[in-house]
Design a protein that fits this description.
This protein is an alpha/beta fold. Helices cover about 30% and strands about 30% of the residues. The two termini are about 20 Å apart.
């Protein structure tokens, strides 16, 4: 199975940092964010190749230069959305499933269990999701305008599942994308939304496994405990 990392986003939420380097190169424990993702993906023996889609003519060139001695394959993104950029994979993933990982997601999830869930559900797409989230602010219980109790940054169970940027997709998804005439396509809304209505998209619940959307360097301090747990887990499994 191949693993594809999408690292071509503009990183607008991470400015001004991303005026100088791509979000995938945000330093995490003295290594770029994408280094830890690749290390985690490489720990699974069924991953045969890692492909990075990025803007090689722009800041994405920094990623390629960093991994210049590796066997990672790099592909120029087309700035045509999270689905449009996958059309470049047509001759690479063929009909087999592949892992898709958005480069701002850091998580040491068990891809082996996720793949089993994908096959058990006979789905065309599987998304890693979570129901539990640790809040960054304190809460208060209020009764008739009076605070009766403070709750410091609780872990809550959300009414709806939160989607991470980690997927297992059938290679047939590429054919669906190619059949669309739209220029800029979003994977979730333009492709998976339609499949979900047919019951062809499964959800792999990561439980309380730490997951961080590294939208900017500033979040690393706010989520430092989760970051540490994730990196320790990745290093342990490598």
């Amino acid at each position: 199975m191949k693993a594809v990392i999408l690292a071509g986003g503009k990183g607008t939420r991470a400015r001004p940092f991303t005026d100088y380097f791509p979000k995938a190169m945000i330093p995490v424990y003295e290594k770029p964010l994408i280094f830890h993702i690749i290390k985690h993906l490489s720990s699974f023996d069924f991953i045969s190749e890692i492909i990075v889609v990025c803007d090689l003519s722009g800041f994405g060139g920094q990623i390629k230069n960093y991994f210049e001695k590796s066997k990672i394959r790099f592909i120029q993104d087309s700035a045509s959305g999270t689905a449009g950029d996958l059309m470049h994979l047509a001759g690479l993933v063929k009909k087999g499933p592949f892992v898709l990982w958005f480069a701002d997601n850091l998580c040491a999830l068990d891809l082996r269990k996720m793949y089993k869930h994908y096959t058990d559900k006979k789905s065309m797409a599987c998304i890693a999701t979570r129901q539990f989230r640790k809040e960054e602010t304190g809460f208060a219980q209020v009764d008739d305008g009076i605070i009766t109790q403070f709750i410091e940054k609780p872990t809550i169970r959300m009414e709806d599942c939160e989607c991470t940027g980690i997927y297992i997709l059938s290679g047939k998804i590429i054919d669906i994308i190619k059949s669309k005439s739209k220029k800029n396509m979003n994977l979730s809304y333009d492709i998976l939304q339609e499949l979900s209505k047919k019951g062809q998209v499964s959800s792999f619940d990561i439980g309380k496994t730490p997951w961080v959307d590294v939208e900017s360097p500033s979040i690393l301090q706010r989520k430092s405990d989760d970051i540490k747990k994730i990196i320790n887990s990745i290093n342990h499994n490598a």
